[in-house]
Fold Thiamine-binding protein domain-containing protein.
Amino acid sequence: MRLRVEFTTEPFDLEEAPAHAVAAREVIQKAQLDAVDVGPFGNTAEGEAGEVLGAVSALLRDALGAGATRVSLQVNVIGEDAP
């Protein structure tokens, strides 16, 4: 099964990327995921379910550990197995 994760971390800082945003993005960029898109207000990545779920776990741990007060995420099933 393939999954797509979309996420943002808060609080926002329009001047520079906060440590929690950098930590979350580093997790996603280092994971074995496809179609990684990192942006100023949202990030997405796709991959096999095990890889995405592992990355989400690390993303939550690292972002919260780096000062995030909120992590919003959505995970969708994509591809041929999607309902």
User: Anything to note?
Assistant: The first strand starts at residue 2 and ends at 10. Residues 4 and 76 are 5 Å apart (CA to CA).
